[in-house]
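Deliverable D2.4 — example input (structure tokens):
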């Protein structure tokens, strides 16, 4: 489940919210845990890792993509 980072506009308290993609798409607007204000804004969406089993890859192996340099994945 993604973790979203928010900040209160009124008291400037930073806080995190775990929510499903469905909740986020529905217009998630959390209350500030300190002052209970509805005036909050998202400041950063955290990333998360999904690991597949069975391919023999480990977390310390480089990830290759279209902008990977020479030598990546045997290339």
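Example output (designed residues):
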């Amino acid at each position: 489940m993604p973790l979203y980072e928010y900040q209160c506009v009124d008291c400037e308290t930073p806080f995190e919210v775990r929510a499903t993609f469905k909740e986020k798409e529905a217009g998630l607007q959390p209350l500030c845990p300190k002052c209970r204000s509805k005036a909050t804004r998202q400041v950063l969406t955290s990333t998360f890792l999904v690991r597949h089993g069975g391919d023999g890859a480990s977390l310390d192996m480089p990830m290759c993509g279209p902008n990977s340099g020479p030598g990546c994945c045997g290339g």
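The helical segments are 21-25.
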